[in-house]
Amino acid sequence: GAQSAQGALALAWIAYETHDYAHALDWFGKAGQWDFDAAGPKAEEGRALCLRALERYEELAEFGYPRRKTSPALRDAYFAGMIAWLTSDKPLREVKPQARADFETAVAEERHAEGAQALAWGALMRGDWLLARQGFETAMAWSGLDPQAPQGPADALRGKLVEGYVEALRAGGELERAED
Length: 180
Prior knowledge:
The structure is a single chain. It contains ten helices and no strands. By secondary structure, the chain is mainly α.
């Protein structure tokens, strides 16, 4: 039978919407192979979304980083996957140095406060308090949040940032020195 990229793409999105991410990933791959000009960009978005949903973060990092600027959906899947990978602690997952470096580059290019915060939490969970402190400082600066500001709609984000920053200071022994 004839291979239809549009048909494969339709089957892929149906599988994705029904949370059958493994089959969706297969169909997105076929759609992109059969006619990249017709289906490629949407197939790549779907592939990134599936890799994120399947928690195949290492593959998502390799696939998503070089393609993150091709579409908002692919970019969002890449950032969400990297944030989840860096901050997952049940169990704590090893993040490959190249994947982390690529994500740091993407975060810096966009001044992405949530990405900076994820890098900081990831560093803190892995015992690198200095990197964590720097990451929380960067996230606070990029978010425009003042940790001393009165109550407001940004309290949840401010609270998590300040909580992580204080934890990083304590881990590095700086908080005790500052309080003396």
